[in-house]
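User: Hey, my collaborator sent me this sequence without any context and asked if I could get a structure. I don't really work with proteins. Can you help?
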Amino acid sequence: AVVSTQSTGDGSKQKQLDNLLKRDDAIIGIIITDKDSAIPILSSYNSGSSDSVSRHRAFISSTTMIIKNCNKLGLGETKRVCRTYDDRNVVTYCNKQWIIIIIGSKETSLGAMLSLESEINRCIEDIPVLSDD
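Assistant: No problem. I've predicted the 3D structure and written it out in C-alpha cell form, which is a compact way to encode the shape of the chain:
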C-alpha cells in the first residue's frame, strides 16, 4: 500500500506516482519539490515506511542547496546527485522547475532508482508552475 500527499489538485498525477512506487518495495518514497522554494508539491511513500514529507523537510532543503551550489564550486551544472547512507540510498535530480527525490532502502539499486527518471518526468511534465508575477 502507498501513502500519498498532494497539493497539485490533480489526482491522476498522484495515482501515477503511487503506481511507480508500488513497483518496487525497496523504494521508500518519491518527493517532487519546487526548485526555487523546496516546497513539496507531490509525494508518495510506501505505507510500510515511517517516513513522511514532514520528517524530510530539512533534508529536502539541504538537497536543494547542494544542487544549486555545485555550479558555484566549479563542478558544473548538476543533473543528478546519488547518496548512500547506512540505512538508505537517495537519488535526486532536476527537471526544469522541479527537484525530484527518490528514497530507497539500503538494498535498493541506484540504477533501479535512476531508471524511474523518465517515467517520473512523464508523470509531472504538465504540472503548472505558479509564477510570482
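In plain terms: The two ends are 40 Å apart (CA to CA). You can pass these C-alpha cells on to your collaborator as they are.
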